[in-house]
From TrEMBL:
It comes from the Bacteria. It comes from Flavivirga rizhaonensis. It holds the Pfam family DUF1801. This is DUF1801 domain-containing protein. InterPro entries: YdhG-like (IPR014922). Residues 16-112 form the YdhG-like domain.
Length: 125
């Protein structure tokens, strides 16, 4: 079993179901995305640049769907929040699968992919 698969299957519910659902949406929406296991969490890269990662922050009760260049997308997609005072990363916090607006998320994935493809660096701040 790949480390990223182990990570998902070792999560408690409802986090496991939420993460597996988000993973399937990402992989089905962006066939060019590469799933990696870095820093002990799943990352989704476009080329060699990280675009999204999934995490459960200590002391929080949600899955953090974090966009690396989220600061560039937060005006167009107000669902992205600045959690933990991060400089560049913005995220969607999911407590249930129903919290995810599928159509909006797919649009956000396409926009994030296009933005990252045009960018020279993944981390710019």
């Amino acid at each position: 079993m790949k480390p990223v698969d182990e990570y998902f299957f070792n999560q408690k519910e409802p986090y496991q179901s939420i993460m597996l659902y988000v993973r399937s949406v990402i992989l089905n929406t962006l066939p060019e995305v590469e799933e990696k296991y870095s820093y002990r969490i799943p990352f989704y890269n476009i080329g060699k640049k990280p675009m999204i990662y999934l995490n459960i922050l200590k002391g929080k009760n949600y899955v953090d769907v974090a966009f690396v260049q989220g600061i560039l997308l937060e005006k167009q997609f107000p669902v992205l929040k600045n959690d933990n005072k991060r400089k560049q990363v913005r995220s969607i916090q999911l407590r249930t699968i129903e919290d995810l607006d599928h159509e909006n998320f797919v649009e956000l994935l396409h926009e994030a992919s296009n933005s990252l493809s045009k960018s020279k660096k993944a981390w710019f701040i």
